[in-house]
Fold these 2 entries.
Entry 1:
Amino acid sequence: MAPRKKPFIAGNWKMHTTRAEARALVGEIVRASRALAEAEFVVIPPYTALAEAAETIAGSPVALGGQNLFWEDKGAYTGEISGPMLADAGCDFVLVGHSERRQDFGETDETVKKRIAAALRSRLRPIVCIGETLAERESGRTWDILGTQMAGGLDGLDEASFRRIVLAYEPVWAIGTGRTATPAQAEETQAFIRRQLEDKYGKEASSCAIILYGGSVKPANAYALFRERNIDGFLVGGASLEAASFIEIAAEAIKAFKEVK
Ligand code: PGA
């Protein structure tokens, strides 16, 4: 039986929000989070709004994350941002290997592995994203792809380090498309991921692992998804840009959590 884990609700704002918009959005989330203490919240704004977000979450249970990091801590790497910089900006988390980074910016399992190591060096908790494309799913390669992404990204990661990471299963065909995985599809895949983790890190560590689902999560589907046993939370894109929908997703997850977990 997996341990009881609070719903983990992360909002990935991608390339959206000015500083003023970020301040307003985080402010609303902070206010709502007080009444939703059963959930853990993470906001992941663009780099330019991290300072505003850090000020606004101060003293609240809402945590801050970066959207990416480079694997060196400093140096002549124009345009990059490092783990120490994110930690200094107030981040506790950082996304690694988002499918948009994999597809559009050449991210590979090898660079995911290097970024995970860099994040951990800076005491950041990486939220490591994996997921198959539609073509991969339709050609029956989902398990191979996820197995390869996990084996490559987590290569050499010891158990103590593994316990610091969060995994996010995000089928690429569900991201930003409005086409969510059905609860059964998501559960089948998340259970597969947990079994892989169990092979590598043992039953206890794998059952403690937080495995998020991401891809067109909305208030309307959050409850049914969260009822599934192996879904520990959500990585939300589009619906995290409106405080009301982000908060409602958390409220739906809490409702399912109280009923079945
Ligand atoms: P979406 O994005 O919720 O807009 O589908 C999810 C993500 O990319 O993390």
Entry 2:
Amino acid sequence: MTEDDTQTFDSTVYYDDDADSEAIVQKTVAVLGYGSQGHAHAQNLADSGVDVVVGLREDSSSWEAAEGDGLRVATPADAAAEADIVSVLVPDTVQPDVYENAIEPNLEAGDTLQFAHGFNIHYNQIQPPEDVDVTMVAPKSPGHLVRRNYENDEGTPGLLAIYQDATGDAHDEGLAYAAAIGCTRAGVVETSFREETETDLFGEQAVLCGGVTSLVKQGYETLVDAGYSPEMAYFECLNELKLIVDLMYEDGLGGMWDSVSDTAEYGGLTQGDVVVDEHARENMEEVLEKVQNGQFAREWIAENQAGRPSYTQLRHAEKNHEIEAVGEELRGLFAWQEETDEEESAEVKA
Ligand code: NAD
Ligand code: MG
């Protein structure tokens, strides 16, 4: 087969050989925030020989943690002032504030503003001056895996996007940053701030976080309302989801279909579209439109400005769904869960 027959994927993918560490080793990177992404970027960059200063508020509980990991720590403003590259890894909702107070006054021509998600640039919540580079290196994974993979000489797939190239070096520097945190070991896909932001929001709303939890709850409620036991409903509709997702993660949909019984395959193939039908598709298109036209962004920004009233209420309702109580009790009865918990927290601390 020729390449044309097999390759439908037309984005550029970069690997270690495409990156030149010279574009970053002479520079100082301020990593603002020491949460999920921050701790991983800071430690991986430092281990790759880059000069790193972590930017944290003076009362931050992470200050000691970062110093304990052998890193230099300063206030966000001092770190930004010193740095050539400011990696903005505080929560998206506080980035505009941190930008205004700590970053913008300390940006010099030729500096780089580096993000791991495009929300604030794409929706104009941060409007950088024209004389700085604006880049994104976004690992497609939570921070503890970005760190663990790096330590195990493995990579974490990532995205690279250039929003603004004032110096002409933004692309080389972004690739070097991606290499220094371990992403080019696995592969880095070129994208844009718009594409990353809109697909990320759509994915987490319609499929990953929103779609899946709704599917689980509706399945659970359907069984319990029909008189089946909550324990059985929990196992069928939530617990086993992990096994199915693991198979899809490893070998795609086909890998999953090959592993389940023929009965499960036939039933799944005939009934899946009955449940998630053309109405669900229309609803997905509506969700996507609200992401594209900025309606979701405006709603979320206003929600934050108002002190998160709906968010607080929705969180409360989700916590109080019956499936959560049933799950907590059941997970307590099984040994596998304890092991997984210990492994996970050990990973996060590592
Ligand atoms: P996080 O919530 O885990 O960590 C945020 C850090 O910022 C914490 O150390 C917190 O103490 C600090 N912080 C909070 N407010 C601050 C302030 N006002 N001043 C200074 N520091 C402050 O955040 P995260 O999940 O690592 O997200 C960081 C960025 O990475 C976001 O843009 C996010 O979209 C992106 N991202 C996250 C993931 C992920 O899996 N977590 C994956 C890809 C991209
Ligand atoms: Mg500077």
